[in-house]
From TrEMBL:
Domain of life, source organism: Eukaryota
Domain Hikeshi-like N-terminal stretches: 17-120
A Pfam family hit: Hikeshi-like_N
TM annotation in the entry: none
Family under the similarity heading: Belongs to the OPI10 family.
Protein name: Hikeshi-like domain-containing protein
Organism the protein comes from: Riccia fluitans
């Protein structure tokens, strides 16, 4: 029905790698791959093996669960979009971790895949939207830090040179050209 791979971490994995919960849901225990380092797995590629594996009005929805957290939706594939690289963005919920009884086995991180109605899924890939927001915040922080090094204070206002945006953007472009991984370091 579908296959999965973790870019730069795995070969394509068959459906048999997942534990089947029922006719329409599967779970992958991340201990199978990385143990407690599940949060180092940032992306997952999921793909349909054929255009006839699911009805036209259905999708395979992808969810992630960190130890102690609830499942969170990350994206989906369907016949009109038969493959996708989905940012996993593992949930963090340390307060629930503290509520686990002593001596109990810790929960493991899991990826869930389920067949759902296309119409019931969010229109946007939430994982991608969160990644874009994080990137925008980090770029904004970079700009602010650059501007601070050139500003002066007049009363309750920061005063910066008029060409500060041009200077910052030129420096930003130069770094990106010299180091192909520079922009990747802006994401978590």
């Amino acid at each position: 029905m579908f296959g999965v791979l973790f870019p730069n971490r795995s070969f394509p994995l068959a459906l048999s790698t997942f534990a089947q919960v029922d006719d329409h849901r599967w779970l992958l225990d991340m201990n199978y791959f990385v143990g407690e380092a599940y949060d180092q797995v940032k992306d997952m590629c999921i793909f349909l093996l054929s255009d006839q594996v699911i009805p036209a009005d259905k999708a395979l929805a992808v969810y992630v669960q960190s130890p102690g957290s609830a499942f969170e939706y990350r994206g989906a594939v369907h016949n009109a979009c038969p493959s996708a690289v989905i940012p996993l963005l593992w949930p963090t919920n340390p307060s629930q971790m503290l509520l686990m009884p002593p001596g109990s086995a810790p929960l493991t991180a899991q990826i869930g895949v389920s067949v759902e109605d296309v119409s019931s899924l969010p229109l946007l890939n939430l994982g991608q939207q969160k990644r874009v927001e994080e990137l925008a915040m980090k770029v904004g922080e970079n700009l602010f830090n650059f501007m601070q090094s050139f500003c002066t204070v007049e009363g309750d206002k920061l005063v910066v040179p008029m060409d500060i945006l041009n200077r910052w953007f030129k420096k930003f472009q130069d770094k990106a050209k010299l180091d192909p991984e520079y922009l990747n370091r802006f994401t978590l």
